[in-house]
Amino acid sequence: MTAEISGVAEAAEVVAQLVAADGCAWHREQTHASLIRYLLEEAYEVADAVDHELGPQALAEELGDVLYQVLLHSALASQAEAGFDINAVGERLAAKLRARHPHVFGDLGPKTAAELTQMWEQLKASAAAGEGVAAGETAAPRSAAVGESAAAAPQSVLFRGIPAALPSLMKAQKVVERQHRAGLEPRAALQNLEIDSAAAAYGAEIYELVTRAAAEGVDVDQALRATLAQVIVATADG
Cα angle vertex 112, ends 212, 163, to 5°? Predict the structure, then answer.
């Protein structure tokens, strides 16, 4: 066992003790639902460490906090009937990564980054159509049809796997990205919207801005975060 794996195994043992009957009362009271906020917060702290270039030690600590959440969810699940443990999570991940990278683990030769991205989406769609959530996809409400035709990608699976809880700007980017890959014009969807309030008008305007940014290869979420960081500094120095 390598030092990296033994470190993860040690962390898993610690978390298992925390949720045990004679462990920590707070941990025993937690559920998957009650832990959602912590998982999201820790993920954002990872992003913060990267955005502010806090260094490898800070990033390692924040990644450890995300791992803690994964271990905690797995430990709680292992106590449920027909549940799973962290080993099952790892095995499922390894199997999915091998299946999604046939150019590395299969017979396919090297491909360009663009071809690999397209292949990844095709494999995800095939897995979702064949096995649904069992294939590792995140269940999410299906979106209404956008535009008149989506022959390149059935509407029933076009937006599958986009988490409902994803922050709005990130979700908008995902939606626009899927539309582009399906051969759709994202802005065409605006014709089908009911703009009956100022809020709806602003929402449509933001969506249109996301489509323009995507066309120029700009990550609008990262762009806004960078701008806000400057605004905060400028205001504090004001």
Answer: 50
